[in-house]
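queue> pop job 88
queue> type: inverse folding (structure -> sequence)
queue> payload:
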């Protein structure tokens, strides 16, 4: 795998930590793909207050607030 490139589809509560591991060695054309960011649309539901939903929401906010990268989101269960 190319430096600064990664695919995150593992322990959902640790997405921020996984992201930081990949982003610690960025490359000019590298990418990081995070799967299932909407947690079966439960993250988008106002009632989604389960711990997993909170952690997914925290990851999405973390990515949204970064100014040092381009971000793209797909539909369905979401990939960033």
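queue> result:
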């Amino acid at each position: 795998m190319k430096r600064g490139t990664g695919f995150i589809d593992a322990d959902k509560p640790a997405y921020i930590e996984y992201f930081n591991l990949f982003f610690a060695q960025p490359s000019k054309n590298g990418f990081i793909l995070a799967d299932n960011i909407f947690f079966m649309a439960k993250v988008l539901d106002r009632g989604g207050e389960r711990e997993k939903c909170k952690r997914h929401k925290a990851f999405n906010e973390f990515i949204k607030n970064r100014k040092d990268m381009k971000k793209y989101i797909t539909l369905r269960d979401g990939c960033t």
